[in-house]
Amino acid sequence: MTRWRPSCAPWAPTSSVSNDHLSPVQGRIFEETLPLLRAAGIEVLDDPDTSRNLILDTSQPGVRVLVVRASAVPIYVQQGGADLGITGRDTLIEHLAKWGGSVGAAGLYQPLDLGISRCRISVAVRVDFDYAFAVRQGARLRVATKYLAIAREFFAAKGVHADLIKLYGSVELAPLVGLSDAIIDLVSTGNTLRANQLVEVEHIMDISARLVVNQASLKLKQAPMRAIIDAFASAVAA
Ligand code: PRP
Prior knowledge:
Strand content: 25-35%
Distance between the termini: 23 Å
Strand order of the largest sheet: 9-8-10-7-11
Largest sheet: 5 strands, mixed
CATH class of the largest domain: Alpha Beta
Bound molecules: 1-O-pyrophosphono-5-O-phosphono-alpha-D-ribofuranose
CATH topology of the largest domain: D-Maltodextrin-Binding Protein, domain 2
Number of domains: 2
Structural class: alpha/beta
Order of helices and strands: EEHEEHEHEEHEHEHEHEEHH
Shape: elongated
Number of strands: 12
CATH architecture of the largest domain: 3-Layer(aba) Sandwich
């Protein structure tokens, strides 16, 4: 299992199970994942806040939690470094873009929406930027984002010309210094936008944490992995 820094502020979770190893992520997602793990009978023994270990032992022999960046969770699970993982829908969509957006084509299986670490992806601009007018005029928009695939598809569907600028964090800075007209980013509380005089102008999609599973692992380790997936499903339904 892996822990990851969440995509949704202040934290989003990601987890994965490798061999017999479950990998949740660090951050809010990690914390929100812990009750699901407990429901599956898995207690993380190391304290992720104090430990520098990247592999955390659990109360279940053979089940370990890996500590990885949010964006790396689908990679670990796809490549078999972990049997299953918890990652944000945002991260998954960006990862799957290389496989035509298909979970199956990437050798993954997405059995559950865990319903935790909820947030949204939105378009935001400076409060003094007339986004509706710019779109009506057919202006060419400069848009900064971590989410190139999501941004590309969103603006293509709207018929808006957008020049995308890939950033890796602190995306809200871009319109403040004239790097972009707009951003596409995660919004959770909205505090970061407000603090930087930005305003949401379009809601693109809702985000939550998803369980992702390596298809080959599931075939080879049916019983232990099914037990974890079913326990997660029961905990989500409860
Ligand atoms: C995320 C996101 C926004 C912020 C939104 O950033 O990119 O910046 O959280 O949260 P809010 O609506 O509750 O203010 P994160 O903390 O992951 O850091 P980053 O900017 O480095 O990606």
